[in-house]
Amino acid sequence: MQQFDNQEILMKLKSSKQFWDIKKKLKQGLGDQQKIGVNDIQKLAQSCEIEDQLIKLISHILKKSKKRETLKEDQIEFLNTSKIKWTELLFKNLDIVHQKTKNQEEDDTNTDSKLYIYDEKNLLAFLQTFKQQQQSNALYQNVQFQSNKLLNINIPLKSSQSILDKYQYLLLQEELQDDKINKIRKQIENEHLDIELEKIAQTFVPNGERCLLYLKYFEFDHQETVLQQNFAKLQKECLNQLFYDELLEIDGHEISEDTFYFVFQEQILTCLKCFIRDRTIKENIRIQLQNGVKKEHAEFQLPVTGFFPFKNISKYVAPLCYLSTKIHIIYALFKEFFCRYFCFLHAISSENNSILSLCMQIEEIVSTRSPKLFHHLKVIGCDTLKLIIHQLVYCFIGDMDPPHILTIYDQIIGHDSLEILVILCVGFLNKYKPKLLLAKNQENVQQIFSELREDRFQELVQFAYKQ
Amino acid sequence: MQNKKLKWKSDFEKSVIIENFVNRGWIKSQDKEEDSSDWNVYWATVWNVRNIFNPKSGFRLNDQQIINHFPNHYELTRKDCMVKNLKRFKREQDKETYEQQGWNFDFLPTTYVFPGEYSLFVEEFHRCPNQTWIVKPAARSQGKGIFLLRKIQQLKKIAGTTVTNNMTQLNLASKENYVVSKYIDNPLLIGGKKFDLRMYVLVTNYKPLKVWIYNKGFGRFCNEQYTTDVAEIENMFVHLTNVAIQQYSDKYSQKHGGKYSIDALKFYVESAYGTEAFQKMMDDIHSIMLTSLKSVQAVIQNDKHCFEMYGYDILLDANLKPWLIEINASPSLTTTTPVDKNLKLNLINDVYNIVLPNDDFPDNEQKQQQITKVGGFSVLYDESLDLMNRKAQKRQSVKIWK
């Protein structure tokens, strides 16, 4: 881990506009004083909050100085071995998919659409196998397993009440007047510290300033040329076809049918083709998704990203296409969102943001706050998690309109966390609870969700807190 | 409460019209005659409206009848008439006045009507050698007969004979007029594709003018990536956004029909270009609607039995400047997707909630009532408010004088 000494911190401070603004304020405050001691500066700094600003600026620099480390090993050993097994399974799937594409080339009438390496159902099914493993493990013999939950695995879990409390402020959010919105606009233009940008993202982000906020938060705001050059290099590499390109093209078909995203179909595909060729992802991603190298023959290895593309990967890019007309900006934002956040939705891990933790939080909240619904779904063979897994893994993209999806992205940045998805999934289930309680079987349940519906961010938050 | 058994008639077998009428408990007129008058509500073709209002027909609408076109709507909705009226309106306005009023005429591409203005066109054509032009029949729809022009010789298509650079007159093979406009070759692209906007405007009165704008509409996208490559100039899948044309593309999707909601477009423009740019774009679009309607206010035969729902076709260029392409008197009510059906069903429903509130036939005074929002429609302009304000100001100034 890189660490700065005092001299380096000072250099970094001097390269920040805020430092010079603070210095100017101090100078103005001290006026024409002839003898200025350290105590004078300290007194002044404390009285007009300059000290706080300086502390924040230094901690921001220190935070940024830490090289992002990719989590490879989980604290729970069986999850590490599970990751290896998952990777092996995916390699097998890859072989099957490759064979299917060969068959399709030979036989046009065979249009098997399951040409993907894994989807959210496969992932959930794999996570389900942990329960059996744990139950047979001597280490966990004294642990009470609740058989009614799909995933009740012994991993450290945040209390669901703390998650509910954390997001309760959203219930009080009112529509803002123009003057307040203008104030927030100015804040975004002037602010650089991630902690302040997070605060803004938690409360309200005006549509016209969202892209700027995201770029500032990821420190891309003065790096457009670099982003453009990097993207151009990746685009050149796309001239060499990879087998995964075909899978990405097939994946794009669903987006091409979506009324909100069909216009961006080509941009999305271009971004993804560049993504799977981007060598910097492996070192930037917060968590390792797969672990293993195919041994038997070298035809297909993991892409240079270190993980396989999966079904509906296109969905993660789509909402970001609304933020900019420049594809290199869209790409940079997608890459950052994936490496920081969405990767956890595909990681076998006990981390707070991981799919495993999020699923268990949802089960915990629904089983305790809506036990009738939880039980009823079990009885009709339609598990809570199986019902909600698609919305969870793909952040409601395709279920909500783009403005609501980007509000979700705001909250993800705002709290540096995916926990907002827990709230929304609970809200989603509560919203449809009356109809779900009348459903007699899986077909009835599918019927409920196949009807034209409109789910909104604020609405689902309200439902999440309804008892 | 809508419980009056009004009789309806429709020249269009469109579910969005019929379902609306049936849902209101209205009864279909059983009179089989085309020129029957046994109806209260008639959704008519423009030709039947023309016949009804033709003095020779001897037909007079009664107080319990309402129809969906003004007698001479074509002043606005025929391309050649629209151009003529806008040019006349611009000439009539004192420059200072219209700038003060906020009228802006810079939304119509340079256009000439053939055959009358052919020589003027030739002059301009030679002045701008790299300009592409778009040729359209004045009174047709669905993209029929439209083509892009780079060489004068291409006019053979409509002249029926060879056309040369030095000809100053053009005799058209058919009787119809054509409009020839400078082609906007830098349209705003989304995802690399050209699109135009279809927006709905309802006029319930021309004198005084009352205009409602609908909050839903859609962008109609081309299926092919846009290019100015001369080799693709005849590729209508690149240049013409009409659904009637795009539906024949291999890439056409039944699911979305190439229609992108106006809400999504507004969100895109605001997010990608900023709130100020978005607001200016919307203000410019509203200005186009008002200016165009104002330009025909003096010539349209106002009639209390009439209202008209127009389909405005607007093209945005790469600078977010909107351009008026045309105004449709009979915007398509065919539905190509479930979303489309929902939009048009609600659209017609809201139209009748405005023109026949509670199934009542409002008189002129009632038409001016100060409701500003009904369903998805909001009042864009109500001239009667201006008149009221002026009367109030006059009374006030008289009071002061007294």
Automatic annotation (TrEMBL), chain A:
Q: Which InterPro entries match?
A: Rab-GAP-TBC_dom, Rab-GAP_TBC_sf, TBC1D19
Could you tell me the superkingdom of the organism this chain comes from? Eukaryota
Q: Where is the Rab-GAP TBC domain?
A: 313-437
The record's Gene3D superfamilies line, in alphabetical order, gives: Ypt/Rab-GAP domain of gyp1p, domain 3 (1.10.472.80)
User: What is this protein called in UniProt?
Assistant: Rab-GAP TBC domain-containing protein
Which organism was this protein described from? Paramecium tetraurelia
TrEMBL record, chain B:
Query: What GO cellular component is one of the record's annotations?
Result: ciliary basal body
Q: Name one GO biological process term.
A: microtubule cytoskeleton organization
Q: Which domain of life is it from?
A: Eukaryota
Q: Which InterPro entries match?
A: ATP-grasp (IPR011761), TTL/TTLL_fam (IPR004344)
Report domain ATP-grasp positions: 313-356
The question of whether Ligase is a record keyword is answered with yes
Q: Which GO terms describe its molecular function?
A: ATP binding; metal ion binding; tubulin binding; tubulin-glutamic acid ligase activity
Q: Where in the cell is it found?
A: Cytoplasm, Cytoskeleton, Cilium basal body
Provide the alphabetized UniProt keywords: ATP-binding, Cell projection, Cilium, Cytoplasm, Cytoskeleton, Ligase, Microtubule, Nucleotide-binding
Q: Which PANTHER family match?
A: POLYGLUTAMYLASE COMPLEX SUBUNIT TTLL1, TUBULIN POLYGLUTAMYLASE
Q: Which family does it belong to?
A: Belongs to the tubulin polyglutamylase family.
Give the protein's recorded name. ATP-grasp domain-containing protein
